[in-house]
UniProtKB/TrEMBL annotation:
Superkingdom of origin organism: Bacteria
Single GO molecular function: ATP binding
Protein name according to UniProt: ABC-2 type transport system ATP-binding protein
Alphabetized InterPro entries for the sequence: AAA+_ATPase, ABC_transporter-like_ATP-bd, ABC_transporter-like_CS, DrrA1/2-like_C, P-loop_NTPase
Protein source organism: Streptomonospora salina
Classification via PANTHER family: ABC TRANSPORTER, ATP-BINDING PROTEIN
Keyword list, A-Z: ATP-binding, Nucleotide-binding, Transport
Similarity comment: Belongs to the ABC transporter superfamily.
Biased composition range(s): Basic and acidic residues: 297-308
Region: Disordered, residue numbers: 297-320
Length: 320
């Protein structure tokens, strides 16, 4: 495993009474890497993040950074956005950020400067004196992210930072995370918004029942999947792939955007597939299929399902 500045989770296991929330979860986030942590409700993301923060202990396994176990002084330098947002509801926005910076050991002028910087950066200048309680949920979330950033963290661990944000705030949040990563900070965040994760992340980890079932950059995840072509042909039974019978090993694997998805075995010639399609009728489109992260995700968590059933919106917060 890395000892080069990576955040490394090594075989973390955690039970809540008899519920096994984490099952030897291992993963790492490199310096400057944006790592998207995805998984269904109850998969174990929050538990893992809370263990990284040290607010929850693992039953076994370790968390290390720069090759050393994470100790308390380092944990204080993590920027954390908890799932259950933790701000002082009655305190003003700027005052709150300043206070949090002070709690992390920053001197008063530095705390003031950083609070001002993040208030402005998140478009909260007009709200700087408002109590957090009186802000919209999206604005509360901007403050929450500012709170995670106000002490110049060396690691960022963010539990669903994008949930409930409007598109403008999503862009702002994405920009800030990219910037932090560009400074060399490892950024770990969870999200159910798979399109966003696909756009933003260098690497993605898919967690199911407390264990990492797949990880890599999205292209890498694609390459490990089956080889598929999306074919549109005007022929009788085209949607069911009746014309496929002449192509050795080819299998209909559902549809995507109105095209038939055809799975080809390794070594099969795609030109044989094209010729078979042409002999069935006029071919309107023929291309290698590039699955979206949402499709890769569904196939990883439910491997028995066909691509046909994997179409549809990305799972949102309340998806099972
Ligand atoms: N305080 C707790 N007491 C008992 N069980 C818990 C507790 N916190 C979490 N669990 C259980 O541990 C498992 C993992 O939950 P966790 O909150 O880590 O998942 P998650 O991936 O963050 O889910 P979500 O996407 O819904 O936020 C679930 O089965 C959950 O019910």
């Amino acid at each position: 495993m890395h000892d080069d500045g990576s955040l490394v989770l090594d075989r973390l296991t955690r039970y809540y009474k008899r519920v096994r929330a984490l099952d030897r979860l291992s993963m790492s986030v490199g310096p400057g890497e944006l790592f998207g942590f995805v998984g269904g409700n109850g998969a174990g993301k929050t538990t893992a993040m809370r263990i990284v923060l040290g607010v929850l202990a693992a039953d076994s396994g370790t968390v290390s950074w720069q090759g050393r176990p994470l100790d308390l002084p380092t944990r204080r330098r993590i920027g954390y956005m908890p799932e259950e947002r933790g701000l002082y509801p009655k305190m003003g926005v700027r005052e709150q950020l300043e206070h949090l910076a002070r709690l992390h050991g920053i001197d008063p002028p530095g705390a003031r400067r950083r609070a001002d910087h993040w208030v402005e950066r998140f478009g909260l200048t007009g709200r700087a004196r408002d109590e957090v309680n009186n802000l919209s949920l999206g604005n509360q979330q901007r403050v929450q992210l500012a709170a995670a950033l106000v002490h110049d963290p060396v690691l960022l661990v963010l539990d669903e930072p994008f949930s409930g944000l409007d598109p403008e705030a999503v862009d702002m949040m994405s920009g800030v995370l990219r910037e932090r990563a560009a400074e060399g900070v490892p950024v770990l965040f969870s999200s159910h918004q798979l399109e966003l994760v696909e756009q933003l992340c260098d690497r993605v980890g898919i967690i199911k029942e407390g264990a990492l079932i797949d990880e890599g950059d999205v292209d890498g995840l694609r390459d490990r999947g089956p080889r598929r072509y999306a074919v549109r042909v005007d022929a009788e039974g085209a949607d069911e792939g009746a014309w496929l019978s002449g192509v050795a090993g080819a299998r209909a694997a559902g549809t995507a955007d109105g095209a038939l998805l055809v799975e080809l075995p390794d070594g099969a010639d795609d030109q044989d597939l094209l010729r078979a399609a042409l002999s069935a009728g006029p071919v309107r489109s023929f291309a290698p299929h590039r699955p979206r992260l949402a499709e890769l995700y569904r196939e990883a968590v439910e491997p028995s399902r066909d691509a046909a059933e994997t179409e549809g919106p990305a799972p949102e917060r309340n998806a099972a």
